[in-house]
């Protein structure tokens, strides 16, 4: 399957590069447009699965860009990323053709969730997933209840977020960098053992008192959630 392709329309070069790096870590391919006119041209010229659009852009603002594209019959999902966060501004963004609106600064994990929701909607996929399961370990995403073999496990918020990410990528190797970016929202190495400490705590909670380990270390690569020895 080809990776999803995303257009980033953002005039802040550092922010655009950081966003592109984060999206690459999630498996997306992206292109950057530095202003509204360039965004307009790229959106017309190539097929994208999603547009990420800032509002305050040189040459042509993001809302005018979206209005033009919608008027031309292009219905690619658009997520507006803007520092303008008042209710009226969000409403205007959605009426201009945005499908969702996220106010800067934002947590990358929330951006990821909104991207996934828009892509699901565009594919006509069923509603949002509410439960994750690996073997007898279950996570209810609505109530945030974690159980293994029917026994409730109580996790702190960061442990829950770590477990959720690992379970969403069950059967895949998850690197330390991926965890820092998607669980801690770090796009640099903090030079601490924060990941190792939390992995150890999580193992104590979900594996220690059960015969079958689920959280595995893949030597030299990272971690993986899967049933096995």
Topology:
Blueprint: E1 5-9, H1 13-25, E2 29-33, H2 36-45, E3 50-53, H3 62-71, E4 78-82, H4 87-95, E5 100-103, H5 108-123, E6 131-134, E7 137-140, E8 145-148, E9 151-153, H6 157-168, H7 176-182, H8 194-206, E10 215-218, E11 222-225
Parallel strand pairs: 1-2, 1-3, 3-4, 4-5
Antiparallel strand pairs: 6-7, 7-8, 8-9, 10-11
Helix pairs in contact: 2-3, 6-8
Please outline what is shown here:
The protein is of the alpha/beta class and 229 residues long. The protein has 8 helices and 11 strands.
Folded structure, characterized:
The protein is built from eight helices and eleven strands. It starts with a strand and ends with a strand. Helix 2 (about 35-45) runs parallel beside helix 3 (about 60-70) and helix 6 (about 155-170) crosses helix 8 (about 195-205). About 40% of the residues lie in helices and about 20% in strands. By secondary structure, the chain is an alpha/beta fold. The protein has helices at about 15-25, 35-45, 60-70, 85-95, 110-125, 155-170, 175-180, 195-205, and strands spanning about 5-10, 30-35, 50-55, 80, 100-105, 130-135, 135-140, 145-150, 150-155, 215-220, 220-225. A five-stranded parallel β-sheet has the order 2-1-3-4-5, with helices on both faces. A four-stranded antiparallel β-sheet has the order 6-7-8-9, covered by helices on one side. Strands 10-11 form a two-stranded antiparallel ribbon. It folds into two domains: about 5-125, 3-Layer(aba) Sandwich (Rossmann fold); about 130-225, Arc Repressor Mutant, subunit A (Orthogonal Bundle), CATH 1.10.10.10.
